[in-house]
Amino acid sequence: MKTLISANTIRECKERGQTSIAAPLSSTIVTPEARDMAAKLGISLTQDETSPAGGQTCALNKLEQSISNQLPGSGGDAGAVQKIQQAVSERLPAGSVDPRLLEQLVRKAMQELEAGAPAGSCQRQLADNGVVLVRGNSVQMGRFDGAPGKNIGLTDVINSADQARMSAGYMSWENAFFPWTLKYDEIDIVLEGELHIRADGKTYVGKPGDVFFIPDGASIEFGTPGSVRFVYVTYPADWAG
Fold first, then answer.
1. Widest Cα–Cα separation across the chain
2. Tell me: the pLDDT tens digits for 175-211?
3. In angstroms, what CA-CA distances link 97 with 67, 91, 157, 174?
4. How far, CA to CA in Å, does 124 sit from each of 85, 101, 104, 133?
5. Measuring CA to CA, which residue among 239, 13, 238, 32 is closest to residue 119?
């Protein structure tokens, strides 16, 4: 099982006063954003000297540049993702990076470059049989663009890149309401604050530990008069498609 080192991992180490992080290629994957953050904060990433670190490091550091070259006219579609992923894979030692992780890195970097806004991130661990562990306290919120003018945080942590038929993620915001029509089934599990969902003229209030189910085709209003943080699970996985 390999550990994913994200930018948030680097920030946490900086807060603890660490000046270096062990990142052997045999057991870790370091994102391009994490490498940039490490350089910015003066934290060194020590890798296994006997492993072919040069090839992987060079390729991953060039990932964002490769994506930038492909962005014009790409629209972030599946074809562009596949093309970029293939170009980067050709620069990596065979079998050194899980294709699912690489696809996620490509999609994340494309979101950041195209939207001009920070994409969410989290610390993940993957088992060879496909099991994924997401560290909830490592989740950094991205921005949800489905509610113009509202500062809504959203981060997908499980999606089709994990070969999953469903997706999961986190949402959080303060003092905001917005309408939404679902084209998928969704379950919301409230972690903090209050989640208000208005349906058929009535408002339902979920508090920590409460669970909502919202069926495909429902037109509702999401909101909170205070603050809210919750986990969502959707079926099928590509809910934003």
1. 65
2. 999 999 999 999 999 999 999 999 999 999 999 999 9
3. 18, 11, 19, 38
4. 20, 10, 11, 6
5. 32
Domains in the chain, ordered, with CATH?
1-138 (no CATH), 141-241 (2.60.120.10)
Look up residue 108 and give its two tokens. 């994340």
| Amino acid, res. 56 | Q
**Encoded tokens for 14:** 């900086």
Rounded Cα gap, residues 132 and 142, in angstroms: 20
The string of DSSP letters for the chain reads: -EEEE-HHHHHHHHHTT--EEE--TTTEEE-HHHHHHHHHHT-EEE--TTS-HHHHHHHHHTHHHHHHHH-TTTTT-HHHHHHHHHHHHTTSPTTSS-HHHHHHHHHHHHHHHHHSSPPPEEEEEE-TTS-EEEEEEEEE-EE-TTSTTS--EEEEEE-GGGT-SSEEEEEEEEEEEEEEE-SSEEEEEEEEE-EEEEETTEEEEE-TT-EEEE-TT-EEEEEEEEEEEEEEEEESS-TT-
Read off the pTM.
0.55
* Calpha distance 56→93 (Å, rounded): 7
Query: CA 84, CA 91: separation in Å to the nearest integer?
Result: 11
Q: Residue 228 in contact with residue 173, Cβ under 8 Å?
A: yes
The model's pLDDT over 148-157, given as tens digits with 9 standing for 90+, comes to: 889 999 999 9
Q: Do residues 112 and 63 touch, judged by C-beta distance below 8 A? A: no
